[in-house]
Every structure is written in C-alpha cells, then in structure tokens.
Amino acid sequence: MAREPSSIRTVAIVGQGGVGKTSVADALLFAGGANTRLGRVDEESSLFDTEPEELRRRSTITSSLFSFEWKKHGITLIDTPGQGNFVTDAYFALRGAAAAVLVLDASSPLRAETMKLWAWLEEEQMPALVFVNRLDRSEVDLEARLNELEELTQKRTTLLSLPLGAGDELRGVVDLRAGRALVFSGEDGKATEQDVPSELADRVEELRAKLMEDAAEGDDALVEKYLEEGELGEAEVLAGLRAAVRARQILPVLVGSAARNIGLGGLLEAIVELLPAPVERGAESAVDADGNEVTLAPDPSDPVLALVFKTIIDPHAGQLSVVRLLSGTLSGDTQLQNTVTGMRERVGNLLRLEGKKTTQVQEATVGEIVAVAKLKDTHTGDTLADPARPWKARPLKEFTPVITFAVAAKKRGEEDKAAQGLMRLAEEDPALQVTRDEGSGEILLSGAGQLHVEVACEKLERKYGVGVELKAPKVPYRETIRKSVKAHGRLKKQTGGHGQFADCWIEVEPLPRGGGFEFVDKIVGGVIPKGFIPAVEKGVREAMAKGSIAGYPVVDVKVTLYDGQHHEVDSSEMAFKIAGSMAFKAALEQAKPCLLEPYVTLEVTVPDECMGDVMGDLNARRAKVEGMEQVGHNQRIRAKVPMAEVLRYAPDLTSLTSGRGTFEMSFSHYEQLPDHLVPKVVEEARRREEEASA
Ligand SMILES: Nc1nc2c(ncn2[C@@H]2O[C@H](COP(=O)(O)OP(=O)(O)OP(=O)(O)O)[C@@H](O)[C@H]2O)c(=O)[nH]1
Ligand SMILES: [Mg+2]
User: Fold this and answer.
1) 284-393 belongs to which homologous superfamily?
2) How much is the pLDDT for 2?
3) ∠ at Cα 72 (69, 74), nearest 5°?
4) Where are the beta strands (DSSP E) in 232-317?
5) Per-residue pLDDT tens for 263-291?
6) Which of 89, 251, 292, 354 is most exposed, with the fewest beta carbons within 10 Å of its own?
7) Fold designation for 595-677
8) pLDDT band (50, 70, 90) for residue 1
C-alpha cells in the first residue's frame, strides 16, 4: 500500500559550517526511535557523517539521507554540508526536500554561508523552521541570533520554546505552546514536565501572547477570534502556525542542544506538525515535450515524474540515483523515460535510504524520496517520467567553479584511470568539474575551493585506488572577439575516385559577456542541404575549443551561416565539418580577438583592527571593492577580484589576520584581460604546451 501523501515529510537540515546540523539530525533519529543510541559526530558514531573524509575532518562533505517512520509519518531527513567549500551540496538537497530546518549556533554570528543558504530558501520559496542549537555553551546570545536572522530574512521570528538555564546550567526548555517546562536529567532525551519557574513566568506569558498573535495572522478567522477573545486554543494556534509556515509569513524558532540531547523531541514534533507535506507545496513548473512551460500538479494518480537530485556511486555496488517523486505513484519494475537524454530506463527495485544502508520498498508516492539502482545513463538533474507524459522537471542550478587545478597521476600511465575516477566523483558532486586542457592535454579539476579539490583527490585514492597530485592552480581564461566579420571556409579535394567538397560563408559577431554561443542557420534555397548544417555547427564548435591567442576556448560569439555551396556526390558531413572549422578559424584572425579573465565575488569578514591591512592587500590584487559593512566587531568587505589574484587567498588572509579572517568566494563574471597582462598569459600557455609535448 502506498503511503498517504499528506503524512510525508522531507526535510533538509541546513546551516553554516559547524553549527551542529549533523548532531541535530542524529538526535532526531534517536528521538524518532530510528536509532537505538544517540549517534555522535565526535565519536564517529553518526549515521550521517560516515565517509572517511568526513570522519577525519569531523565535518560533513556530502549530503546524506535517512528515512524512517514516526507516529504514522514517513520522514526523510537530509543532513547537508555547511562549510563554504561544500555548501553547494545543500542546494541539491533543497531540490529533493519539501521543507527545511535552518540550524543556528547560539554562540556565533551568522556568516556568509547562511546568507547563501537563505538566498536558496528564498528562490525555492521553501517553508522552514529554525533550530537555535548549542545553548549549553558558555557564550550564548539567543536575542542577537534572532535579530541577525530577522535582519537577513526580513521575516518575523516566533519563539516556540525558550531555554531553561544557560551554558552548563541548561536544564531544559519551556514549551511555549503548552506553557510547560520540560526538564531533562540525562541524555536520553526524556523530560519531566513541570510548571514554568516563577522567575520566567512573565516572559513566558509575554511570548505566548506573541505566539498567538503570530499564529492568528496565518488565518483571518483566527485574527478575528483572537481580537474578540484575547486567547486561542492549542488546536487553533497549531492550525494558524501551520498556515503561516506554509505561506512563509513567519519563522518559528525552537531552541536546544543536540550535544546534550535537549529540545530535539520538540523539533521532531514541530517537523511533523508545522512543516508541510510535499503535496501541500502545490504545483511545480515543468516543461512539456514541445518545450512549453506547464504546471505539474503533485497528484498521486497522475503519470510518474521524478527529479534525480542526487547520485551516489559505490565502486562495488554501482550507481544509485536518488529521486524526488514530483507526481504519480512509482512501483518497482517500471519502464520510465529519461526525458533529458531521451533514453528508456528500467527501474528495478526501489530503495529507501537509511544512512549507509538501504531497504527495499514496493512503492513510493508523490513527494517521497527513493533511490533507484543501476540506471544506464541517468545523471543528477535528469527527469524520469512515464513515457506517456514525457515532461521535464525544472532544471537544477549550475554552479561555476572558482578554482581549477591541473592534476597528475603519481604513477606513470595512470592518467586515464585518474580521469575516469574523477568523472565518477563529479557525477556524485555536481560542483566538481573534470576537463582536459586543450593545449597541454592535462586533466583539470575544478571546484568550489582548494579544500573541495583536495578532498576529491583523497576520495579518488580511497575509492578508485589512484593517487594524484595537484599542480599549480590554473586560471580558466577564455577568448572572444571584438568585431563582426564574414569569413569563408572551402574544402575541395580530389582523391582518386570521388572527392571532398564543402563550401560555407559565416558571419561571426561578438555577443555580450556571458552570452555563450549562438548558431543561426540562414541558408536559403538549399545551397547547403539541411542535413549538413549541424555538421557546419559542429566544425565551428570544434574550432572554438581553441582560441588563436593562447589556445583558450572561445566564448560569447554568434555565428550565422548564410551562404555556401555543395556538390551532389562529393559533399559529406565530414567535409562540411572541416569547412565550418576553416571558416571559423579564418574569422577569428580578423575579428580582433582578445583574452577574457574570470572574476570572483569575494566576501571577507575580518576584525576591525585588520581592516587596513586587508584592504591594502585587496587593492594590490586589483580588487574592485563594492561595499563594506559593520557586523559586530567585524567588518565585512564585498569585492569583485580577478580569480588569478586570489588563487591562494586562504593562507594569505590567515597571516594578515592571525587566523581571524574568513572568506567566501563564488564565480562572478568574465572581463577583458588588461593589455599589459596579455604577454604573461600567452607565454605561460606556450610553455605549458611545450612541456606537454616534450
Ligand atoms: N556544546 C555543544 N556542542 C555541539 C552541539 N551540537 C553539536 N556540537 C558539536 O559541534 C561540533 C560540530 O557538530 P556537527 O554536528 O558536526 O556540526 P555540522 O553543522 O554538521 O558541521 P558541518 O557538517 O561541518 O557543517 C561537534 O564537535 C559537535 O559535537 C551542542 O548542542 N552543544
Ligand atoms: Mg555536518
């Protein structure tokens, strides 16, 4: 029997690095009876942080899922990474889940990672609860966290619980909905219910009144009742809160300590009671087979449509595709169509993920998250659909890497093995990119930061048995043109029997930065037959892979094919591909080519007294400072900086600020490389190519 869709909760646990997300997730499993002991990150007993790279660093690197049943609800928790190098993985988890728990650390201010996460929650219009963790620490400031959060989100926070005691003296929480104190004695999560201590009574009354007011706002009828009677019953508060959370009007906040296992039962209850089931999120947008935008209702009796939001590859067990079912009811042994690749895929067993383990399930209903094993050619971001309704789900966001290293195998001859292993890692981690340098043939590995790339290499060695070393980081320069030109490509060869003939005229024009590539077919009268036009485009694309200045890929051009000739017998796809390449190369020479360099957005947070040094250093790096802001005793600086100038920013910032500065970086845009720097880049490219051919 398929589960009742309204009883499903799929929840991503997000927050900046080290706030205790994994500890919260483990404590929720314990509270829900899915684990008989309390998993702990520090004792390597977490059911979420299980990979050796995570255990070594005591930090989450990839998101991990656990589904369990609790009080007739099917709950899936997704624990996500928060550390800047890995936080993009949280975005993919948000595409799998229907709601989120944002975890804050009561003892430290919000950082750039939380800003980034909030921006995604906004984009996805994701209903969320907040859990303020680590209230057992010595320097906690709940008030300050709530202010920071309201400032960031521009939403009202509503406390659902309040700490009883603080720091070492933390004894429990006050449940504000019930108006009762919950006192915890051990770490088994069990609490005894008591009256609210008298010294807190006034504060509790005040907060309960605010809670009722905020709850009433979710529903006009409740506002009226509250104004008339000055009081709402528990069921009404609950209904009002549910509606307000779904409409994203308020951010309910619970407090506690995952390490001491205080307040997690309340969080689990709030997940079930206040967060919406996936079906309650309403229709999603999708694209039909003709490319038109359509609305996709979350209906269990509609045809199946599932988004692959994560891929897990085990070197032995193979590939698992983790899907969110956006409509329909899926059972095992079904034929589906991958509507992105067009391939048919057979779905065998359906699996429920329980940390590292899986169990088989018969059926999954709309909203649920399940894994499917051994699909032939399906990747993260693809859609699996009933062939009767071959729609595509809204695509996943793409992330442009900020750092690129050349990678060399430690053992000679293992280059291909390394490249293949890295490709598989990139399959699991969409923020990782593996490419080849067109000039030198080296393997290039790109990611969100140096640590991201280093961890990928560690995994490569462990999972695929290839040791690699990182060479100097590379800047992914690009080339483009500054002038529109027309050019001719003509291939005419007579070799024995029949010959090779193709002739084409193209116009090449610059596109605005970020415009990528456009190909326009303006052939009239069949001077080049339809069937050969894709071959011309292919030839152009191949020629674009290597620019004329330093061999970097050419971008931001529009190519219009407007004239040509063919021969009944001697023309072929191959001939037109070559002619297309020739035409593009000829165009490039006359079109005033230039080099483009990548810029990153850099956000640096440093103590006030380091400000001068850090700004001076940024100026020396050609940074364009866009803003500065006081955050507590720190300054936050936001700037656009050429990537080439910040390839190794981490150690420099550490020494400038004695380790007290932090930064966040993301790709921003490309700009023309200043003329005086061109010779250096050209020379480096030439040297690399020479080394490669030596
Ligand atoms: N004192 C205290 N420590 C906690 C609490 N929750 C977690 N910790 C500790 O904080 C550290 C980080 O906890 P994690 O659960 O790994 O934090 P995280 O948010 O998952 O970290 P990342 O995955 O790296 O983003 C660990 O040493 C935990 O034991 C808490 O409530 N109180
Ligand atoms: Mg973690």
Assistant:
1) Translation factors (2.40.30.10)
2) 65
3) 40
4) 250-255, 284-287, 293-296, 305-314
5) 999 999 999 999 999 999 999 999 999 99
6) 292
7) Alpha-Beta Plaits (3.30.70)
8) low
